[in-house]
Write a structure and sequence with these properties.
Length: about 120
């Protein structure tokens, strides 16, 4: 008998976003809100424009130094960037969990039910 319930394969809609996708979305949203170009922000951050584009699209994992430089170029601190990304993750998780609860009325594999 296994000690832990087996993990059930998650449906594509229940998949958590990757950190690089969330951070990239935040960087792009902040840049666009300031009506700035990729070139402008990349120059201010001292990173290449193609690399910044890859970061915004979630195709690259950035180091903390690069994230801090990108945040500073947008007038944010690294803590601000990470806080915005955390907010996005929480929003996504709450949205996904709400959808899962409405879609599944019965018990799922691995759930434990106690009867009195």
């Amino acid at each position: 008998m296994p000690l832990r319930p087996r993990a059930t394969p998650a449906s594509p809609t229940a998949k958590e976003p990757l950190w690089r996708d969330v951070v990239g979305d935040v960087l792009r949203r902040e840049r666009r809100a300031q009506e700035r170009t990729l070139k402008d922000v990349a120059d201010a951050a001292r990173i290449s424009m193609p690399y910044l584009s890859e970061l915004e699209r979630g195709r690259k994992e950035a180091s903390s130094e690069v994230l801090a430089a990108g945040a500073r170029a947008l007038g944010l601190s690294l803590a601000d960037l990470l806080s915005l990304a955390q907010t996005e993750l929480i929003r996504h998780t709450q949205h996904t969990q709400g959808r899962q609860h409405t879609q599944s009325a019965g018990p799922r594999q691995g759930d434990v039910r106690l009867a009195a």
